[in-house]
Amino acid sequence: MTTLLIGPADKTVTITVQQRTCTAPQDAFRILVPIDLPTVFRPVAPFPGISSVKNQTEAWDHAGPRRNPQFDDGSQADEELTEYVPGSSFAYQLTGFTNVLSRLAAGIRGEFNVNPDGDGTLIRWTYEFKPLPGRRWILAGPFTPLWRRYMVAALDRCVHVIETKDNKRAGAAPGRVTARSSGTRVPTRSFRPS
Question: What is the pTM of this model?
Fold first, then answer.
């Protein structure tokens, strides 16, 4: 059984972003869960992208599997899928960072929620940082807008992959993405991977 990183008494720093897609919730979830991390986690200064994933123990479709995301600056982290509700949500823990995050946080709990939204889906993604002693002010202050920008870019790529794969399955031309982050409307635009 997994020991959860964050408990009720922990004072964490939480960052949430969300985006809408015209894809149905069950299809969005099916595509999102096993998504190729290097495709969606590209560098957004000052943070590195993910270059590969190593040591995945099992399929990423139930609580328990582990893997090691490899960042393009040569660092890595330990990741474990801790919760999985088919068609609805999944959560994971990131620990063992070998980059600057090791000096700021004991670890991170990430969670994706996929919810019906009219004819499409609202995807909400939350990162909850467990700060090291004396580091909460950094995570809650100057770090937050930088990390939010990183998350918005990654979620934009996730939605692009979801809509592209869903449209290929349906035999339609790719649609346009309408995005939201923390209640702020992001202009509809085409996405081209970097």
Answer: 0.85
